[in-house]
Amino acid sequence: MAAVVATPELRRPAVFAVRTLAVALGYYAAGRLGLVRELTVEGAVFTPIWPPTGVAVACLLLLGIRVWPGIALGALFVIMSLTSLRPAVIGNLIGNTAAPVCAYLMLRKVGFRNDLARLRDGLALVFLGALTAMLLSSTVGVGMLVLTDKLAAHSFWAVWLAWWVGDAMGVLIVTPVLLVLHAITRPLRPARWKEAVGLGLIACALVPLATHSRVSLLFLVYPLLIWAALRFQLAGSMLCALFTSVMATVAATDSVGPFERLSRVEVMIKLQAFNGTMALTALLLSAVITEQQHTRRSVERACQELVEVLEHLTAGDAPPGRPVKDIQETETTETTKATETTETTEDKNG
Questions:
Q1: What are the C-alpha distances in Å from 182 to residues 96, 110, 174?
Q2: Domains of the chain, earliest start first
Q3: Rounded to 5 degrees, what are φ and ψ at 41?
Q4: Confidence band, pLDDT 50/70/90 cuts, at residue 10
Q5: How far apart are alpha carbons 224 and 273 in whole angstroms?
Q6: Interatomic CA distance for residues 211 and 246, integer angstroms
Q7: How far is 208 from 257, CA to CA, in rounded Å?
Q8: Fewest beta carbons within 10 Å, which of 159, 162, 259, 291?
Q9: What confidence tens digit (pLDDT) does each residue in 33-86 have?
Q10: CA angle 73, 253, 205 (to 5 degrees)
């Protein structure tokens, strides 16, 4: 009996340790991937998209608040791979951990659903999870650089903006993709696979052209996003947005295509404006379409149930879920009431 009781008690710390390490490794891998492409603003190096913030918010939404040590450990791994442990580094570690936790708390406070099936969920992820919560990490991180004389005070706002947008883009692009991948339970039907393959082939041809052409053709990706959102909802639109964002970031960091002959600040502004509007379009459009589809299905089910009830009533049978005895008692009661009413009326007239 003692062994049976002790097994769950020993299993819980083991599960917690494995889960924490898995989150830390995922955060670290995303961080190393984000560092592949960098931009420099006012002497400070930053990534246009910081995937670890999206990974952290997704892990918190899927696994709960208890995984925050894994986020802190993963952030420590990323920081230690770049520099040594200093006061400014500790501030960055705190900010990078606190921002996703704040995003999680705010999203749960407003009743956020992981399936992003409502417009309010998309708006909450944009304005609370990305734009508001990431103010914490950027403010703490850049503030520590200024306080430790690693950054000039006059460069605060330019670096702060680049840091904030990079963290927010990680939440806008990476978090929905991870939530969608976690929610997938069955593959597409064979008929849908043909369309999905066709969409993927067109994206592989059109997106590199739009992001690397000297002629400004970035607008060509929006019909592609609309097609993906209409036919495949969040999964299609966000995967398309992720691929487009990666290709645009590659073009921006290489200063080719529409980003050629621009200053570093202009490249940052153009890239982040494009990535932001594209992610917002994909996320909110797919949320609206999914919400409308759910509403339509609910109305269709209600109409079908009403038709079934009317058919049973017309045939004299009990509606589904209602015994015949109840209907007979109801009919007897109504007949008795009608008889009493008739007799009362005749007595008054008499």
A1: 24, 22, 12
A2: 13-185 (1.10.1760), 186-343 (no CATH)
A3: -130, 120
A4: low
A5: 18
A6: 10
A7: 10
A8: 291
A9: 988 888 777 667 778 889 999 999 999 999 999 999 999 999 999 988 887 777
A10: 105
